[in-house]
Structures are given as C-alpha cells and as structure tokens.
Records
---
Amino acid sequence: MIIGIGASEEIEKVLVAAEKVSSDTISVIVFLPEGVQTRSDTPLRYHHSQHPERALIDALLRGEIDGGVRGTLPAHSTLRYLREATGVNQIERVALLETIEGRRFLLTPVGVDEGMTINDKVRLIRGAERLADQIGIDRSVGILSGGRLGDIGRSPDVDRTLAEAELLARITGGIHAEILIEEAVHTFGIVIAPDGISGNLIFRTLVLLGSGTGHGAPVVNIGVSFVDTSRASENYGNAIHLAAAIASQK
C-alpha cells in the first residue's frame, strides 16, 4: 500500500509521523516543495514539485499511489484542485474523531461552507454511512439541532434547526438527537452537526481543547482515498492509516 502525504509547513512534523507509520504494509511518499532538503537514512520516498498539492492529487488519480493525505499543504489550493481534478461540484468531508475515553465517531459537516442545505446534509449522511461501512464504525445516525424540542418558540434560529433536524431524520432514517451532543457521541456512530460552522467548532473543541483525537476527514464523494487534515494536528500518522484503510476497501 502506497500513501502520499503533503508537507509545505512544519515539514519535520510530517516527516516524523510518516516515518513512524512506514512498514512492510504501508510505504509513504512525501510531496514537498522544490528545494526542501531531505534525509536519505529513512524508509520514506520524496517527490519535490513546484506545486506539491497538484503533484499529490495527480499521482492519486493516475493510480500511482493508493491514497492521499493533505498533511500541511494549503487547504484552499489543495481542495480546490482536488475538486477540479475529480469534477465534483463540492468536496464532501466526514471527520473521524475519538474522545479521550476512546469512543470513535464520524462527524459532518466540518467545513464552514459545507452542509448549507438539507440536500447537502443528505449527501453527507449517505457518504458517512458508506465510510462507516468501510472502516467498521456503527452506521447509526444522530442529528443535532440547536436545542431541545421543548425549546420551540424561544428563538427563530433554534426553531429552524429543530425543524431541519426533524425533517432530516425522516428523510434519512436517522434520529433527532436534539442539542445533546454528550449523549449523541456515545449512542451513534455518525453525528450530524446543525451546520459546518458548528461542526468545525465541535472538532476544534474536542481535538484542540478537550484532549480528543482527530484521525482526519476523508473526502467521501470522489471515488478515491483522500484524507483531509488540519494543520493544527499533532500527529499525521492516524490520517495515513485511515487513508490506507479506505484504499484497501476500494
């Protein structure tokens, strides 16, 4: 299994993680900007390019690598090129998260501009269900909203999220978990945030403040294994393993 990972910032952190996960079953190629010095006493392979994000994605789509990880490549240019190269209208991501107690669950939407409509969320749920099957996560769906059902009438914004969650539950067969995220993550394998902003805040609160773990956010609508990562991540080894696990199911 060959996995590519990008590195344009905090390069040493990426190299250390990639070297740790390199094994007889996973070979890692690091895609780097031109001119970056690398070591030869390592199992890693390197690909230097003026545009490493393009080189990584091109290699993935040509089948030269089995899976890709964004690593510390710029989010905007990398995801934009991935969208253009795969011909999709929008990149759909689902994050694999883990609480400090070891409970793993999928969360979506996690991009601030994702999950804007009911149809967007339906597609994300279906993508999350496919991903759950691939990596062995419970495919039950809990849909969060901005309050409890007893809060109807307190705020138009809360009312809207309650109505949307109820509708989404009927369409997809999921369960409206109200605002009770603390129960949802222990009950459902897939948790649906009210929107991408709150989903991003959930991710950041859990991983960057709450000592949880982010394993990366696979893109679920492109037909190849590509895992998006946050540049705030401390360990990219989890994302490499996740990309390999998804690629093995393709």
Note: Helices lie at 11-21, 52-61, 75-86, 118-135, 156-172, 181-187, 196-209, 237-247.
---
Amino acid sequence: MAKKLLIVDDKLELRQLLRSYLTEEGFEVFTAGNGQEALFAARDHKPDLIILDLMMPEMSGFEFLRTYRREAETPVIVLTARLEENDKVVGLELGADDYVTKPFSMRELTARIRAVLRRMDKAVAAPETLRRGQIELDRTSRMVLVNGKPVDLTPSEFEILAAFMETPGKVFSRLELLERIQGDAYEGYERTIDVHIRNLRLKIEPDPANPHYIETVYGAGYRFAVRD
C-alpha cells in the first residue's frame, strides 16, 4: 500500500509540483494551503508523513504544529527559507522531525521522506522494551514512561532515546544520531540534534539543567549515563 503524504504550503504552484513528482515516486499525496486546511486534511486522511511550510496565512506551520502535536505523532518535515535559521530551531522545538531548506532538490526531499518512513517502519517492526533507571521505552506501543508516567515524544526524540538506551555509555556523535533518525547524515544539519536533545532533557530529566541521563561529552557528542 502506498504511503500517504500531506503537503502543506500556501504556494499553489509548489503544491502542484510536489504532488505531481511525489505521486510519480509512488506516494499517495494530499495537499493543503494553510495550517487550518492541514488540520482538516490530516484528521481526514491520516497521513504517514507531513511536509510543512512554516510561513503561511490564516494558520502558520508553527500554529499547526502546536495544535497537531497534541493529536498525533505523525513525522513532519518542515520547509524553511535559507536565512530563517531561527524558524528551523523553533520548528524542531515544536515537534518537527527534520527540515529541508528552500530552494531544495526533489531528489533530496524524496530521500529525506523515504529515510524518515524507513526509520518509522523499522521501529514498528522491532518490538522491544528497554528499561534504564526510571525510564521504560516500549517499541511496540511507542510509549515512554518516566517514573511510571507516560511522556509524549516526537518520532525523532523516540529514536534518539532508543539509540541511547540500547547502548548506555556509548558516545554518539551528532552525525551518528542524525543518521539514526534520518537514514542519511547531511553535513550542516547535525546541529538539529542539539535541539532534539534539549527537548528530550526537558521531558525525561528530573532537572534538565543538570542532566541525570543524557550527558554531553564535549567535543564528541552525547551519551546515556549508565545508572542502576
């Protein structure tokens, strides 16, 4: 069965171009012109992945993410203009999994889409429960418990935490973690990992300012502390 994509952008020409190209690539594609339309479309079609422009009229991509993340964990790739560095960070903080900078090549976007979908399929196909300290991660239900209480993670945050909990004590570089969540590591994008780590700490650490689980290894990356 073809994977379903939702393209959200206020530019009709771009929506039509992406729909035509990605349909040829074997996807089932739906479109929306703003965040409000996207909410209705996402609820109706239940896409496997959303491609989201951030700057749109009526309801922006930021507002869409704030609302939709309360309802579903569908992976989201945001589209940003080249100079909008802060938009990339805010988008990731709101729960986006990746971003592609405009102008972009269709091949790169398609590769990103397939990498995210492969990672999601792989996670579903590998049922397993991991327990480290007061954290429990269940691959089957994609649920994370901290001190017995459920914590909502984005797909990328879930995969990063799973990588850490599989091999506590191992130091992961930013590029290694990026490859884990995307399937391919693109230089220049590895700093997005810092945003995901910050979000993870806010959700799982007793004191995010003094991490108990996710440690920074300066000059190298991050590791999950080995704790009983």
Note: Residues 38 and 44 are 10 Å apart (CA to CA).
---
Amino acid sequence: MTLSISAIIITKNEEASIGKCLESISWVDEIIVVDSGSTDNTVKISKSYGAKVYTRSWKGFGFQKNKALNLAKKKWILSIDADERVTADLKDYILSLNDKDNYAYSIKRNSYYCGRYLKYGGWGSDYVVRLFKKKTAKFSDELVHESVITRDPVKKIHQHLLHFTYDNYEEVIKKINVYSSAGALKLYSKKIKSSLFKSVLHSLWAFFKTYFFKFGLLDGKAGLILAISNSQYTYYKYLKLSLLYQNKKS
C-alpha cells in the first residue's frame, strides 16, 4: 500500500521558484501552502497547481511549518521548501515505500549555488528529514534552522532532492543579512552571549570548517565563496547577538 502524502510548504514572495517546486510534487495527495503575506504572484501560482493556501503572520520557520503540519490531512508529510525540487528518482522511491513502515526519512539534498552544484563543504552530503508520519513528528519551535523532531527511527534516502539556493551573489548577501538577524535572535532566546572577539573566532572557525574540514576547497572557486559566505553569516550573527545585549543595557 502506497503512502498517503500531504506536501507542506511555507512561502513569502516565491513566484520565481514556487511553480517548479509544485510541479515536482504534483503526484502527492494534498499540497498545503502557508504564506506569510506575499506581495507577488506566489499565492496565485500556488492555487493554480491545486494547493490549499492559508495565510499566517510570520513568527519564525519552526512556528510556520508547524502551522502547515497541523493543517495537513494525510498520514504522511513531505516537507519541502519553495526553492527545492523532487527528482523523478526520488518520487519513484517514495511511491515504492510501504504505508506500514514505521520510519521517518532523511533525504539527500544536492544544492545549486551561484551557477553550479556543490559536492563538498557540507552541501554535497546534506541529509534532511523531510518525509515522516504526521502523528509522530513535529518541527522544533525555532526562528531559523528548525529541525524535525520525530519519535520514529530515521532511515536515509539516497535519491536526490534538488536545492536551488542562490542564483547570484546579491541573493547571498541579502540572505546573510536576514538569516544572521534571525540566528542572533535564536541565540539570544537561549541566553547565549557574544562579543566582538567571539564573533571573529566563530567566523574563522566557520570558514575553516567549511573549506578544510568539510573539503569545500575541492569545489574550487565556488567552495571558497561558500566558505567565505558561511564565515560572514556567522560573524554577523554573533555580532548582532552582542548588540542585542548592548541594546538591552542601554
């Protein structure tokens, strides 16, 4: 017996990518889109693919995805982002699974970064839990970098989920600013403290971890750029965290 699947997606101004994402999951039983106030054609495009679209105010990635999870009606959940695509091989594998399986599944994600697919730097062997039973899982309530919390054992799926992260470096810079602010708030909520010195140390470690320990250097120019952008994101995240504490004192 094949799986009965609800695909869930959270969106805001994703008209450039949402169509291809929805096309890649047109075979699921239900598509739930939770939008946080798009001003482009995201909602219109989503509805044209038969998605059930709901509007909810933004309170963080974890909160938003749990909203989508609660709205889903089917037994199994496929969580996917608007900039991701399910490949034909991945679709066939998912449809071959047995509904009686008691697992959650982490899927290998192949990321496209500024003109090429990366193989290293932590992006070439990136497994993310995306397929699970609704009754046995939920998302962590995080502002950013949320994760799936499941009571079931996790099995790996080696067929690829394609992730189109950034088309150009301007997008990278914009996302660094947005995600570093959210990351700082996340650390602040956990009462983690920072300083300029710690910001620099964390930044250096992020670069070395991406470029050397995770072999980003083997991706050539793209690997170096990824390591630098990870370093910048980390630096600004911890710097903004220190500023949150300074502003609290003033």
Note: Residues 115 and 167 are 6 Å apart (CA to CA).
